[in-house]
Amino acid sequence: MSQKIALITGASRGLGKNAALKLAAKGVDIILTWRSKGQEAQEVVQQINASGARAVAIQLDTGDSKTFSVFVNEVRQQLTTRWQRDSFDYLLNNAGTALHQDFATTSEEQFDEMVNVHFKGPFFLTQKLLPLMVNGGRILNVSSGLARFSLPGSSAYASVKGAIEVLTRYQAKELGVRGITANVLAPGAIETDFSDGRVRDNPQVNASVASMTALGRPGLPDDIGDVVALLLSDESHWINGQRIEASGGMAL
Fold first, then answer.
1. Residues 29, 50: contact at Cβ < 8 Å?
2. Rounded CA gap, 151 and 156, in Å?
3. Is 143 a catalytic residue?
4. Considering 4, 12, 37, 143, which one is annotated as catalytic?
5. Do β-strands 181-187 and 243-246 pair in parallel, antiparallel, or remain unpaired?
6. What confidence score (pLDDT) does residue 20 get?
7. What is the DSSP string of 133-155?
């Protein structure tokens, strides 16, 4: 069995970092991307290398599809030089930015950023990476609990997350001929620095999330990293085209 390699976008911090560390702990090597946190990305690489797995960090702006061809060539080169391979196994489309803006006041610029980062980016990045994915590989896209339940101020963000959920089903349908599965993970509210640490650092928001969650607390990065590792394990090979929400039971 060849060494498994996962490509994770937006893994310099937050849920992407946690997922990278969880997978590395299970012996999966990591190609991670970062947009502006280069030093933090290198620290993640060092943690993974110290654990016995191998990792490399490559800069990528998932909101700028014009850069994807250059990025894919860099991935190809890293696969060749570091792993003596021409393919990788798992793709986690995790990178994202937050927006808290009422529908009535959302600007076209804000809307376009949400579409480019959360939908157009994963759409065309995955498309361009397909030639480098092994047959029998895995695609795991990241959505949000907000695509199921509605909280004011998230219309643009939640709408593009809904779009990625539909795309995931089509990927599963069309890529099944190659044995590639595609699923979507929808985290609930998690205590990270996403959205300026809104859930983690604002006591009112934290308490509100806890009050609407069956398990009585917001999520932690480990809660999501563990699910990523589960969904990218050999035992989950028959899960395909599914939306898996990991929210502790929010808004049930």
1. no
2. 12
3. yes
4. 143
5. parallel
6. 98
7. EEEEEEEEEE--GGGTS--TT-H
SS3 for 45?
Answer: helix
Q: What would the two tokens of residue 3 be?
A: 């060494």
What is the predicted pLDDT for the residue at 203?
A: 82
Residue 29 confidence (pLDDT): 98
Helix (H, G, I), strand (E, B) or coil at 190: strand
Question: What pLDDT, on the 0 to 100 scale, is given for residue 195?
Answer: 64
Cα 4–52–23 angle (5° rounding)?
A: 45
| Region 5-246: CATH code | 3.40.50.720
At residue 149, the pLDDT reads: 93
90 is an active site residue: no
- pLDDT recorded at residue 129: 98
Q: Is 170 a catalytic residue?
A: no
What's the pLDDT score for residue 45?
98
The pLDDT value given to residue 199: 77
Q: Which of 155, 161, 195, 247 is catalytic?
A: 161
Q: C-alpha angle with apex 64: 61 to 69, nearest 5 degrees?
A: 90
Question: CA-CA-CA-CA torsion for 28, 4, 137, 162, nearest 10 degrees?
Answer: 20
Is 195 considered catalytic here? no
Supply the pTM of this predicted model. Answer: 0.95
Q: Which is the catalytic residue, given 22, 90, 120, 144? A: 144
Q: Where are the domains of the chain?
A: 5-246
In this prediction, residue 192 carries a pLDDT of: 73
**Stretches in the chain below the pLDDT threshold 50:** none
What is the rounded distance in angstroms from the CA atom of residue 242 to the CA atom of residue 169? 7
3-class state of residue 32 by DSSP? strand
